[in-house]
Design a protein that fits this description.
13% of the residues lie in helices and 38% in strands. The protein is built from two helices and seven strands. Strands 1, 2, 3, 4, 5, 6 and 7 form a seven-stranded antiparallel β-sheet that branches. A hairpin with a 2-residue loop joins strand 4 and strand 5.
């Protein structure tokens, strides 16, 4: 078996790899660094996520939050939270988790939750494009078409 592996490896040494064509950038794929501090400085309202980048079929969103959000769930997707600044508690019916700056948490799909911040907090979220911030709850805080920063 070792002999056949060596033969394969030896054959690969002289093999030419096909040229890889770099695809053209698509909307949401930044061709430059994204400065989170600059982006957060453009946000003045709470609970209104903004899209800063796309990653495959995902959106990377930023939001400033303060107070209590609505109880909701996302039946078909997990929800990623990363705290950039401040403190965020994610309440779930089964318990809660509190995140500080630099900490992250993934709420599993279907789990009812409510983010809460006693003081202003900056968060990064990653979720499939088109995911509503209020999930199945709807209501006045729903941002159906988030703005791109």
């Amino acid at each position: 078996m070792a002999d056949s592996r060596e033969a394969i490896d030896g054959a690969m040494i002289g093999a030419r790899m096909p040229a890889v064509k770099t695809p053209a950038p698509r909307k949401g794929v930044a061709m430059e660094a994204v400065n989170l501090e600059e982006k957060f400085n453009q946000i003045s309202d709470h609970w209104k996520p903004r899209i800063v980048a796309g990653l495959n079929d995902l959106h990377i969103k930023l939001a400033k939050v303060e107070g209590e959000f609505v109880w909701h769930s996302h039946a078909d997707t997990d929800e990623f939270f990363l705290v950039n600044r401040g403190e965020l508690t994610i309440e779930m019916r089964e318990g809660s988790v509190t995140l500080g700056a630099g900490e992250m948490f993934v709420v599993p799909r279907g789990v009812e939750h409510r983010p809460v911040a006693s003081a202003e907090c900056e968060i990064v979220m990653i979720e499939p494009a088109g995911t509503l911030n209020t999930g199945d709850a709807g209501g006045e805080r729903t941002v159906a078409d988030p703005e791109w920063l």
